[in-house]
Design brief:
The chain is mainly beta. The protein contains no helices and 29 strands.
């Protein structure tokens, strides 16, 4: 989610990216990013887009890993959070020209990334699944704070959400540390400055903090009942009803969306009847006016109306061998068809950038044409 204008299981797939030396700042097009002979058009009605493959010009000696999230700053620069090398944040101009990079220390488990203006400055909030942390930085990569797992968090029964445990396996005592049960996937921002962290790959909780990073409360927990979550992968503050902002959660493994108040009370569960589910393993959201864009890990990006009904489906993948497949090879990927959409954001012109969960990275710019 980017709040500029409105203020398969992957749980075990946490791959540490190795470091590579920067050779020369000479643009090259990576294998998966070869431009199509003719850019395909996807969508329908008001929501038609030209798919620009090969948009991101990655310099020689640098590489994408799993491209997880994308954001646009006030200057129109595009930030990509990924697990490649040598850094976890690559920055491009709107035409895909590489500007700079930073964040080598966050490459292992680089995942969620959200941007917010606070006063006169913009900040990034990173969710690093492999390191079990949430990190706040400025746009130069300088750290403001780093949050470990919330030690004070308690579930609905008043029990600690995270604690050290011991079990017996093959006659040996196996210890599990509390922090290993916490693996944050993304962040959302409240109008009052609070922020929320989704523990999507850990213990299925939502944690709320104030702007200083001080813990406030927790809700959720594993399950499929209303208010319970199974891989709350994405989290977003829906402000389309300006008088009543709500927390929207991409409850991915339950194939549904859930709404909560800003203090965690359950409001609604949205799971359309029939198959295939239109959200196709929803990962996250971004908002432009009265519509949301929702990337679905299993091969589609959806445009949703104010009631979260599908207005248009972009790049639908009908091939079960490649949709949601992190290992889909470049030659298996088709122009205008998504494999594993993971993050997306609108830019100021109404174009959409989509990042895909494929091991060598895939970033596609959707230029709005209708």
């Amino acid at each position: 989610m980017n709040q500029r204008s409105n203020n398969t299981s992957r749980r075990t797939f946490i791959k540490a990216a190795g470091a590579a030396a920067f050779v020369a700042n000479v643009p090259m097009i990576m294998a998966d990013d070869k431009p199509a002979e003719k850019n395909p058009i996807v969508g329908e009605g008001e929501y038609k887009y030209e798919c620009i493959h090969g948009w991101a010009k990655v310099p020689e000696g640098m590489r994408f890993g799993n491209t997880h999230m994308v954001q646009e700053d006030a200057q129109g620069r595009i930030f990509i959070h990924h697990t490649g090398a040598p850094d976890s944040v690559f920055i491009f101009d709107p035409d895909g020209k590489f500007i700079k990079s930073w964040g080598k220390e966050w490459c292992p488990g680089a995942h969620g990334m959200q941007m917010r203006r606070e006063g006169n400055e913009e900040f990034l909030y990173l969710a690093t699944t492999g390191q079990h942390k949430v990190v706040k930085t400025n746009l130069y990569g300088e750290q403001v704070f780093v949050l470990e797992y919330p030690k004070d968090a308690k579930n609905a029964k008043g029990e600690p959400c995270y604690k050290d445990t011991e079990s017996q396996k093959n006659g040996k005592t196996v210890k599990s540390m509390a922090q290993d049960r916490y693996s944050p996937t993304n962040i959302a921002f409240a109008p009052n400055g609070d922020f929320y962290v989704a523990d999507g790959y850990g213990s299925n909780y939502i944690h709320q903090y104030n702007i200083k990073g001080e813990y406030i409360r927790t809700w959720g927990g594993g399950g499929n009942k209303d208010g319970q979550l199974s891989c709350p992968h994405g989290i977003f503050t829906d402000t389309r009803d300006t008088a009543n902002p709500k927390i929207l959660v991409a409850d991915r493994s339950n194939e549904r969306l859930q709404y909560f108040t800003l203090t965690g009370e359950h409001i609604a569960t949205i799971k359309p009847a029939g198959e295939p589910n239109p959200y196709r393993a929803p990962c996250h959201f971004d908002q432009r006016g009265d519509v949301l864009v929702c990337p679905g890990l299993h091969g589609r990006v959806s445009i949703l109306d104010k009631d979260n009904k599908v207005l248009a489906i972009l790049g639908d993948n009908t091939d079960p061998k490649t949709r949601g497949n992190n290992g889909a090879k470049p030659e298996q990927r088709k122009p205008g068809v998504f494999c594993a959409p993971h993050g997306s954001t609108f830019d100021r012109a109404g174009n959409i950038y989509v990042t895909e969960w494929v091991s060598d990275g895939r970033v596609i710019k959707l230029r709005h044409v209708a």
